[in-house]
Amino acid sequence: MTRMEWTNSRYLTLPVTRNEQLVPVVLAVTSLPLLEPIGFLHPEEHTTLTGEALQHYLSGRLAAKLAASHFTQVPAAEICIRTGVFGQPLLYCPGHSNIQVSIAHSGSHAIAVVFPEGHPMGVDIEDTRNARLLSPLTPAEATLAADPLLLWTAREALSKVLKTGLTIDLELLAVAAVSFESGFLIVTFAHFPQYKAISWMAGPMACSLVLPLRSEIDLAVLKTLTYPVS
Ligand SMILES: CC(C)(COP(=O)(O)OP(=O)(O)OC[C@H]1O[C@@H](n2cnc3c(N)ncnc32)[C@H](O)[C@@H]1OP(=O)(O)O)[C@@H](O)C(=O)NCCC(=O)NCCS
């Protein structure tokens, strides 16, 4: 992979540990106003989308390829991301199995995380400039001292881990509690206590990464990723 052509993009091997074992995870962000593919698409990924939908698709694929290519050392154009029956991304990478990707895009900004199938994760981003008024899902949520948009991204990232998206009763995604650590919001869920979200603001973007509750991330390293989407 030629890293130089991915200007304004950044990937990061995230130090995630579980039971003192390192879990391989790569997170990538991009903020390129892409109007046409620049060589990173697999032949199967070429699309007839146009306009804003194309921009979203290309941004998301770029972030996903950046993360997947760094994870596997396979060139971006040889990696194929197909779409499952629920819209979920399916990662195909020659010589690798049991790895997955989660993708989110908003305008020219995108984020993606590549992780082992055995350690489910999900991402979401939302642009605060396009945000609508968001109400708490439950009376308990109304008491939480947290930005409603950050909570929204945490829920949406969880919905991607579950592969349902927002097609379920949204109360199932309700937040149980929040705490603050090193500038990040740590979110736990009322009905999915096995997961947590790490949420943060990067410039105008609200971002969340969901991972298993008892896995640990080095937040100082995660913080270095905030620059490209600010
Ligand atoms: C998943 C969902 C929450 C994404 O929210 P969004 O604000 O539209 O878009 P985001 O930028 O946050 O995320 C988009 C990415 O989510 C991923 N995604 C879509 N559906 C998903 C699912 N069921 N599970 C996990 N990830 C999913 C895709 O990778 C998508 O990007 P891509 O289409 O370019 O590959 C939303 O689309 C949803 O609720 N979908 C429900 C399932 C659905 O309606 N599917 C339609 C096809 S059957």
Automatic annotation (TrEMBL):
Transmembrane annotation, as ranges: 170-191
Record keywords: Membrane, Transmembrane, Transmembrane helix
InterPro entries reported for this sequence: 4-PPantetheinyl_Trfase_dom_sf
Highest taxon in the source lineage: Bacteria
Zinc-finger is among the record's keywords: no
Molecular-function GO term, any one: holo-[acyl-carrier-protein] synthase activity
Descriptive protein name: 4'-phosphopantetheinyl transferase superfamily protein
